[in-house]
Amino acid sequence: MFVDPAISRKKFDQEIAHFRAERPAHHRRGIWLMDATFPNALFIFAATNTKPHPMVAFSVVINFDNYDAEPPSIQFVHPITGDKLKKRELPHPFTTHVQRVMVGPNQIMEVPDQWLAIAFDEDLPPFVCLQGVREYHNHPAHDGDSWWLHRKSGKGTLSYVLDQLAKYGIDGIRGVQVQLVPTIGAFVVQSPQ
Amino acid sequence: MASDNKIALVFIVNGNPVPFEANVNEPLHAVLGAVLAAAGVVGEADKDRWDFKLGDNTLDSNKKIGDLGLKPGTKIFLNSKAGAVG
User: What is residue B75's DSSP assignment?
Assistant: First the structure.
């Protein structure tokens, strides 16, 4: 840690205060703050349009160590246990862009080609690959896109990262997909007369 | 006191409330530079990089403020769109 924790804590408190000031709007969108103990804030994101009830879609811990000499870090966690999630355990891929591909006469298919949550293996924890998030700027592929180019742009604020997570994580959820797999439980036998 | 062609709005920029008196005859995006400057945001005053949100609705920033049906004191969330992803 290279930033005095007292400075990061003050900025953390300010970010949390901004969230709390607009709590009703955030709650209506499905963003709920569950805990804010410096340097971490735990949020759950609820899909508000699922029927018959809203459902918890996912949960993240946002870490503010070294803030804002470094942007915040985001980890997906289990909303109940707090355990870090693997990529395969995410509720959906957090698609940020789809490509329209013509697959036949008058047939266009939308193929996702960009995602917010990235992992190089389905069994590894995913990271949020987005400007204004620590994992993005620390990644060697983005060493030409320094955090210091964005630090005063609004990216990397709590409001910004929550908005992006909500936009790609819950705003588009309209329902749940249920898979029923029939299995043979037992034979039905008619007794001999 | 606001004059006839002015309306007092509150823009929430990255969580930070910015009270702003806007001209109802201007398009919504015309306030962007001044509101961002007041919020201390630098280098991002391109209207295509921002969403103006009222509740769940994204406002058309090309519309005149007077045509959006806003009441004085309305809170408009100004959210930066995602930059580079992936």
Answer: E
Strands B6-13 and B75-80: parallel
A139 touches chain B (CB under 8 A): no
pTM of the model: 0.86
Mutation site for B-interface testing, chosen from A153, A168, A174 by largest number of B Cβ within 10 Å: A153
Q: Does residue B13 sit at the A interface (CB-CB below 8 Å)?
A: yes
Predicted ipTM > 0.90: no
CA distances from B81 to A18, A165, B50 (A): 19, 12, 5
Asked if omega into A52 is within 30° of 0 (cis), the reply is: yes
| Alpha-carbon Rg for chain B in angstroms | 13
| Tens of pLDDT, residues A53-104 | 899 999 999 999 999 999 999 999 999 999 999 999 998 888 888 888 888 8
